[in-house]
Write a structure and sequence with these properties.
- With about 150 residues, the chain is of the alpha+beta class.
- It has helices at about 15-30, 40-50, 90-105, 120-130; strands spanning about 5, 50-60, 60-70, 75-85, 110-115, 130-140, 140-150.
- Helix 1 (about 15-30) packs across helix 2.
Length: about 150
């Protein structure tokens, strides 16, 4: 299994909509809404412009995406890390976080949010990726943990 990353371009908008929809469908069903699910092609094009996105390729097949935004010097927010269901649990997400940490060489703090009740995400970010829970916040009806990793 060979994992590679390539920077997304505007022409990847439909591909990314499909990856996000496959990856976040269960969250959409579970919570009744999900910011990663149901985006239009135009919304994704805007997101590609705002957030540097990397398409995750497994044996040359697009299977996920990781995106970040620089908030200030040394501080980055992981806006999205998603892997389509058929490829989850294979270490691809862990490798994607390692990729982010190597790609953004000046990072001092990485942050991200995930729903509190998604125990598998909490375990993944804390045990496999070296994040700690910093605080809680709310997005609509969903309670979130804010995670932070520091160098």
């Amino acid at each position: 299994m060979e994992i590679e990353y390539r920077q997304a371009v505007i022409d990847d908008a439909e591909l990314l909509v499909n990856i996000y929809n496959a990856s976040f469908y269960d969250d959409y069903v579970r919570y009744g809404s999900c910011p990663g699910y149901g985006q239009t092609k135009e919304m994704m094009e805007e997101s590609i412009i705002k957030y540097l996105k990397h398409i995750i390729l497994c044996d040359n097949e697009p299977v996920g995406c990781v995106s970040c935004i620089k908030l200030e010097n040394g501080l980055y927010e992981v806006g999205c890390l998603c892997v389509i269901p058929e490829y989850q649990g294979k270490g691809i997400g862990t490798q994607a976080i390692r990729f982010v940490k190597s790609f953004y060489e000046d990072w001092e703090r990485l942050t991200l949010v995930t729903p509190i009740d998604k125990k598998e995400n909490v375990k993944f970010y804390t045990e496999k990726c070296g994040f700690r829970i910093e605080s809680t916040e709310r997005d609509g009806n969903v309670e979130l943990f804010r995670f932070v990793a520091e160098r």
